[in-house]
Amino acid sequence: MKKQYLYYPLFLGIFFGLGILIGNLLSVNGMDDAFTTSGNLKKRKLNRLIDIIDQRYVDEVNTDSIVDVTVNGILQNLDPHSIYISTDQAQAVADDMRGNFVGIGIRYFVNEDTISVLSTIKDGPSQKAGIKSGDRILTVDGRPLYGENKVSTDQLKGESGSRITLGVLKPGDSTVFKIPVTRGQIAIKSVDAAYMLTNELGYIKVNRFAESTTAEFNRAIDILKRKGAQQVAVDLRDNPGGVLQAALDMADEFLKDDQLMLFQKDRNNKRKNSYATSDGDFEDKPVFILINENSASASEVVAGALQDNDKGTIIGRRSFGKGLVQQEMQLGDGSAVRLTVARYYTPTGRSIQRPYDSGNEDYFNEYLERYENGELQDKSNIEVNDSLMYKTPAGKIVYGGGGIIPDVFVAGPKGYENQTLDYFARTGFADRVANDFLRTEGSYLRYMPEKEFVDSYQVPETLLLEFYQRARGGNNKSLRLTGNREFMMLLLKASLAEQLYGTELKVKLLNTMDPMIDRLKELSRDRKNT
C-alpha cells in the first residue's frame, strides 16, 4: 500500500519532459495501456530526442540533469505540493518520513571550517562514545573534515554496525582524541516534550508527523496519564505536517468511535472516509490544540477533525491552509514523484486549501500578506468567505478556503524587535552563539547537574552582550537590549539547556515566557472550574 503524505514543502524542456514524466509514471504503475497510439508515438519521439542530445550534441550534456529540471518544472505548474525527489534526495526523504536513519547521532553545524557538535542524540552512538556538545570533529578514520572543500558529513554516513574512528577536539584541549564510534539506527524524534504544565494539564510538543510519530505520541500520552493528567494540550505550532495516518491516529486519541475525522476525494470524485475508533485515551477529557500560521497539512487535519466534531479548543492563529494529499510514486531509477492525488476535507465538508493561482512563490510567501493586513495581531482582520461557511454539530461556525481559524485567538509577536527575537527562538541562531560559549569559557557547564542548571544558573553578561552584538548584524541594527534583556537571557539559557540536557528542557524554559502558553493555562483553569 502506498503511503499518503501531507507535507509542507520549484522551464526548461517542459514540452518533451511532460511526455517523459507521464510515461514514467504510468509505466511505474502498470498503466501504459492508457496511452493512445498517438500518445505512444509522442512518448517515443521525446525519448528519442533525449537520446539524440546524449549521443550527438556538440558538448557533453548531463541528460539526467535535464530530465530533473524538466520534471521539477512540470510539477511546479501543477500545484505547490507536488514535488520531485531526485535519487540524491531519496534516502534523506525516506529517512525523514520513516522517522529514523543510520548515523552517529549528533546535531551539528559548520563553524567556519569545522563540524561543531551542538548535541548528541540520547543513547545514540556518539553519546555512548563520550562525545558532548561543544566538541569539534576534525577527522574520520584519519581523513580531515576541516578546511576548504573538506567539510562534508558524507564520511560520517555508512551501514548500521560499521565502525569509524573520529578525531575529536574537546574544549580547552590541544590534543585531538581518537574516539571509535559504531554507526547505528537513530530515531528522528517527533515529540520534543511531554510534561505536566500544571497539576491537571499535560503538555505535548510535536514537531512533525512521521511513521514513528504514533508510537511516540502514545508513549507521551501514557506518561502524562501516569502523572495524573486530566487535560492535555498538543502543541502543533510550526509543525509542517508529514504522514497522514499519523495525524489520523493522533485525532483518534480524542474522538469517539465512528466519528468522522476526514474524507478525501480523488480526480473521479471518489470519496474515502476516515473514522475514529474506540481506542482513544482522552475521548472524555478536555483537550487543547495549539496552532499558528506555520502549522500545516497533517497539523491541520488534527485541528480540523477536533474542531468539526466540537471536541476541545483550538488556540492560536490561523493555520497555513493546505488541503492536498500527496502519494509517493517511484520512477524506476531511485527517484520519485510525490504527486497530489486527492483533496481532503474536514468532517463538516470544508476544504482548507488556500488558492495557488498566483504561483508557488506568492503561495509560500502569503504570510507577508497576513502580516501586512494585521491578521497576526487581530482575529477580526482574518478574511473569510461567507460562501465557505459551515456549521459543526453543536452549531459553531467554521470556514473553509484557507486554514483553520482557532476558537481562541492569541496574537503573534508585535513589532520588529519581538518578531526578530521570535525568529531567533525558532531557528538556530542562538544555538550557534551558545555552542561557541560552551567551547570556550562555558565548558564547565558540560558537567553541571541539570537541576543545578535550572535552579541557579544565570547567563553571564558577557554571553548576553556577545549574542546582542551578533544579533544586531545584518538588518537588525535597531534591535535594542533595553526591554529585551530578560527574553534574550531566557533564549540563551534555553539553547544551552538543549545542548546540555535535551530538547525537552529547552521547550520547558521557552514556555515560561510564551503568551500562548499563558492563555492555555487560563483556559485550562476555567475548564477545571466549570
UniProtKB/TrEMBL annotation:
Give one Pfam hit by family name: PDZ_2
Q: Which GO terms describe its molecular function?
A: endopeptidase activity; serine-type peptidase activity
Q: Which UniProt keywords apply?
A: Hydrolase, Membrane, Protease, Serine protease, Transmembrane, Transmembrane helix
Q: CDD domains from the entry?
A: cpPDZ_CPP-like, Peptidase_S41_CPP
Transmembrane regions listed in the UniProt entry: 7-26
UniProt GO BP: proteolysis; signal transduction
Family annotation (InterPro entries): ClpP/crotonase-like_dom_sf (IPR029045), PDZ (IPR001478), PDZ_sf (IPR036034), Peptidase_S41A (IPR004447), Tail-specific_protease (IPR005151)
- The segment(s) forming the PDZ domain are 90-172
GO cellular component terms, semicolon-separated: outer membrane-bounded periplasmic space
Family, per the entry?
Answer: Belongs to the peptidase S41A family.
The protein in question is named: Peptidase S41
